[in-house]
Design brief:
Blueprint lengths: L1 H5 L3 H9 L4 H29 L3 H6 L11 H11 L3 H26 L6
Length: 117
């Protein structure tokens, strides 16, 4: 995000100030549209990583106590390797990938716009 902020040309802010835009309008009309690609990448990656949160849970709690730290990736692992239900585990892994891909496409649809300088 910092790199995206630093990549915004200062001339755009100067032009907006000359046109009479206040700080909120400069943020809304200059900064935010130019940050949309970076925001999109961050949202897609954070969503993907949150669905794939497995290693921390495995290392710290191993799914416990009880079922309190069960997430989709942990369910896939436990179903496949603890209960040896390979078909259900493969189906849950496929669905997990499908859900993350759909969410990524939704993010891209709503956040992607062409940037013209």
């Amino acid at each position: 995000m910092l790199a995206a902020l630093q990549g915004i040309p200062e001339e755009l802010y100067e032009a907006a100030a000359v046109d009479g835009a206040n700080a909120w309008q400069r943020f809304r009309r200059v900064t935010l549209p130019l940050l949309r690609p970076a925001i999109m990448v961050v949202l897609v990656l954070r969503t993907l990583w949150s669905f794939m949160a497995f290693d921390e849970i495995f290392a710290v709690t191993q799914g416990g106590p009880g079922y309190s730290t069960w997430v989709a990736a942990w369910y896939t692992y436990a179903t496949t390797f603890r209960y040896l239900k390979f078909g259900i585990g493969a189906a849950s892994a496929y669905l997990l990938g499908l859900v993350t891909a759909i969410l990524a496409l939704i993010y891209v649809k709503f956040l992607y716009t062409e940037i013209e300088y």
